[in-house]
Design goal:
- The complex is a heterodimer of chains A (448) and B (308).
- Chain A has helices spanning 19-25, 29-41, 69-79, 98-108, 120-135, 140-159, 169-178, 196-207, 220-238, 243-248, 267-273, 290-298, 331-346, 349-368, 373-397, 400-426, 431-445, and strands at 6-13, 45-52, 56-63, 92-96, 188-192, 212-216, 258-262, 276-279, 305-309, 326-330.
- Chain A contains 17 helices and ten strands.
- The radius of gyration of chain A is 30 Å and the shape is elongated.
- By secondary structure, chain A is α/β, with parallel strands linked by helices.
- Chain A has three domains: 6-162 and 348-368, Beta Polymerase, domain 2; 169-334, 3-Layer(aba) Sandwich (Rossmann fold); 373-445, no CATH class.
- Chain B is an all-alpha fold and 308 residues long.
- Chain B folds into two domains: 1-120; 146-308, no CATH class.
- Chain B contains twelve helices and no strands.
- In chain B, helix 3 (68-90) packs antiparallel against helix 4.
- Chain A binds chain B through residues 159-161, 164-165, 178-183, 300-304, 324-325, 327, 329, 333, 336-337, 340-341, 344, 347-348, 351, and chain B through 30-32, 35, 156-157, 160-161, 163, 165, 169-170, 173-177, 246-253.
Chain lengths: 448, 308
């Protein structure tokens, strides 16, 4: 009987391994490729796909039947200079067969991520998969498993709310802004302060295609520097080939993401045209005063003004929040949003697991049919050969149209015969009966 | 046919309730089932209701808006259909619970209090009236949806202002989208209301020529309902101008939209119940001196008929 290959997964991830271990287990591009090559050359190994991110290093291996993953992987890891003991120590976990596939599907869906449902892991898996395909031909099992994982991840994200809502403070800021302005590209943001926190917040707004970002800082020079850095990063990421880099600026649009810097004196005037104001200065006293905002609001004709004060101590005077049409939010609000979203995501876990189970069942069904395929393929090839002969005969006697019609008709016939054969083989009552049926088919129509 | 209409009358509020319930479920949870079925269910209800309206029209050989309740039912249908159009255009499903809820309420009222019209006005068979009535229906549908989205805007703005990140925060689209949907509905409603008023005037003058002098005298362009409609039209148009050219935005703009709609409902209610208006058409009917000699109803009101 033609037995299917077995799939294995070895993982070191944030759940069981501290940062130090994860750092030591990390496989950079070069080492990951070397490991794939070493495993592909190893006896009994069909193919391997290593995945290494900041939170996990995992190696998915497809082995021929009757081989054990331990010795093969140890030898390959040692060959590329990686610490093999880590992958079989107390911080590592091993899965085989359906458990390995289930783990891969859960990883792809973000259920194993530190931030439940985060989407970046799918991009990282896709990068690893492409890298693997560029250097080897993954076995049919791994190929199917990864394709299934991408499908499961997509289904979980679209059919449940597992990825909905920001789960980091920086993304919560963007989410909050998007409750005011859906299409950020039509809107202007002003970043007050050019420090590290400000830069981080600005990056998130640029990732979501804010139309215009103006950096205002007491030191104009630092504002100019930050504006130039942000622009350069945006352009570099937009042309990056890697999925993970592209994801940093998901739908970079030419008309969005303009960045400039203005002097500190223009702050009051900027409030008139701004839609979002991010304040992140290190000032010890508020820099946005009620009079300044009230004057701007008068000229805005009711258009809402959204302030996000992520500075400690606060940059916005508390009385600003009382002005009509002005909304002021701070770090506590962002934290509340994050906690609320995390709780909402956790509620989606059962629905997500159900999708994973469905996809796993589909994979297992595919795996169950693996032994049928070579024999059915031979049968198909035999039938097609007969069809070609028959069509050739008709072509010599009749017109091309008649021959084409016969060809179409026989194709339909073959499809029906093969469909019926597959169904009969699949519904065999025992493995012995199935093997007997296959043997009969091979004897009748096989190539040997 | 009467039985079919009777079944439809009982079934429709239940179907509207089902649609409302599905959209409410969709709003409150991430379950994929309502995401999948809500729009399809709503489309099916629109088609069924449309079929029921056509059946009613055929059964009585007239426009199925012969009474306040028939108009209410048609309004429910128009609100649901227009909402579906907006949903498809804006790809926003989470706001469906409010318009479908309003449509359910209207259909429930229409079905619960439905009675057979003893003698529906023969004017309902006139194409001029039909055009006017359909335009009025569509205009009010648009204004109702504008009200719905303005209410949602104010609810979300209120939550944001109070730093409450609850259900509205998580499930409603942005203030920006809600405002655009509300204004978009007014942009649709204003020309429709204008067209309905113009057509109404033209039809009124053409009708006056066919009525006896006493009945014709009641057809006044200064009828309270017409005057109020013009005032409302100008009010909405001014709001639109402000939005387009003066940059009126935000809470005040949406408070105006809600206030305007409440005024529409209140003034029309007051006029209908307390101010005499030819729009109830009863007096026009009593002016008829002779039974109609031909099936074309308007001939029954012709001066010739009166002389005879």
């Amino acid at each position: 009987m033609n037995q299917p290959a077995t799939l294995h997964a070895v993982t070191i991830n944030h759940r069981h391994a501290p940062t130090e271990i994860r750092e030591r287990a990390h496989l950079d591009d070069e080492r990951a490729i070397a490991l794939m090559v070493a495993l592909a050359a190893a006896e009994g190994c069909v193919a391997a796909i290593p995945v290494s991110t900041c939170n996990r290093t995992e190696i998915y291996v497809e082995l021929e039947p009757g081989h054990e993953v331990g010795p093969i992987l140890r030898a390959a890891l040692a060959e590329v200079g990686a610490d093999a003991r880590l992958f079989f120590g107390e911080h590592a976990r091993q899965f085989a067969g359906a458990d390995a596939i289930g783990h891969l599907y859960r990883v792809s869906a973000g259920l194993e991520s530190m931030m439940l449902g985060e989407p970046q892991i799918t991009a990282q898996l896709k990068d690893s998969y492409r890298r693997a395909r560029a250097h080897q031909e993954p076995g049919p099992g791994l190929l199917r498993a990864f394709q299934g994982a991408f499908r499961a991840g997509k289904r979980v994200r679209t059919e449940t709310g597992i990825s909905r809502g920001a789960v980091s403070v920086a993304f919560a800021a963007v989410e909050l802004a998007r409750k005011f302005f859906d299409y950020l590209c039509d809107h202007r943001a002003v970043l007050v302060g050019a420090g590290e926190t400000g830069g981080l917040a600005a990056r998130h707004f640029l990732q979501h295609n804010i139309g215009q970002l103006t950096v205002i800082n007491r030191s104009g020079e630092r504002a100019q520097e930050l504006a130039a850095t942000l622009l350069a990063e945006r352009e570099a990421a937009a042309t990056a080939p890697r999925e993970t880099d592209k994801q940093r600026f998901p739908a970079a649009q030419a008309e969005c993401g303009r960045v400039d810097a203005k002097p500190w004196e223009s702050l009051a005037e900027s409030l008139v045209t701004a839609d979002v104001v991010l304040t992140t200065t290190g000032a010890t006293e508020p820099v946005i005063m009620p009079e300044m905002v009230a004057a701007a609001v008068k000229r805005r004709r009711g258009k809402p003004l959204f302030f996000l004060d992520i500075a400690v101590p606060r940059d916005i005077h508390p009385d600003v929040a009382d002005i009509d049409g002005v909304f002021v939010f701070g770090l506590d609000d962002l934290d509340e949003i994050v906690q609320g979203n995390l709780a909402a995501r956790r509620k989606q876990l059962p629905a997500a697991q159900q999708i994973i189970d469905e996809e796993l069942a589909a994979f297992e069904q595919w795996l169950g049919d693996v032994d049928l395929r070579p024999t059915v393929a031979e049968f198909k090839s035999y039938l097609e050969e007969l069809k070609d002969k028959q069509v050739g005969f008709v072509r010599r006697k009749q017109s091309a149209e008649v021959a084409a019609e016969v060809d179409r008709s026989l194709q339909q016939f073959i499809k029906k015969v093969l469909g019926r054969s597959m169904t009969t083989l699949k519904t065999a009552e025992s493995p012995e009966e199935r093997e007997r049926d296959l043997e009969t088919l091979r004897r009748l129509f096989g190539r040997d | 046919m009467t039985m079919v209409l009777s079944v439809a009358n009982t079934l429709l509020p239940l179907l509207y309730l089902l649609v409302f319930g599905t959209y409410l479920w969709l709003f409150r949870s991430d379950n994929p089932t309502p995401q999948r079925v809500a729009s399809r269910l709503a489309v099916a209800v629109v088609l069924l209701h449309l079929a029921a309206e056509i059946a009613r029209g055929l059964a009585y050989s007239r426009l199925p808006m012969g009474s306040k309740l028939e108009f209410t039912s048609a309004l429910a249908l128009a609100i649901l259909a227009t909402y579906l159009f907006l949903e498809r255009r804006r790809r926003v499903k989470n706001t469906g619970w409010l318009p479908t809820g309003m449509a359910f309420l209207l259909q429930f009222i229409a079905s619960a209090f439905a009675t057979e019209l003893p003698q529906p006005s023969p004017l309902l068979k006139d194409p001029g009236f039909a055009g006017h009535a359909v335009l009025v229906l569509l205009a009010y549908t648009a204004l109702t949806l504008s009200f719905v989205y303005a209410v949602l805007y104010l609810l979300l703005a209120r939550q944001l202002g109070r730093h409450q990140f609850g259900l509205f925060f998580r499930r409603l689209p942005s203030l920006d989208v809600l405002e655009r949907m509300s204004v978009g509905a007014v942009e649709l409603g204003v020309p429709l209301l204008f067209a309905s008023l113009v057509l109404g005037h033209l039809w009124m003058y053409s009708l006056a020529d066919k009525l006896g002098p006493a009945a014709a005298a009641q057809l006044s362009p200064y009828d309270p309902k017409i005057l109020v409609s013009w005032v409302l039209l100008l009010g909405y148009a001014a709001g639109l101008m402000g939005y387009r050219f003066l940059g009126w935005r935000g809470r005040r703009m949406n408070v105006m939209a809600v206030t305007a709609f409440v005024l529409v409902v209140m003034t029309m209610g007051v006029i209908r119940h307390f101010v005499p208006s030819f729009h109830d058409f009863k007096q026009l009917q009593t002016e008829r001196t002779e039974p109609p000699v031909r099936h074309e109803v308007l001939l029954a009101y012709s001066p010739a008929g009166e002389d005879a």
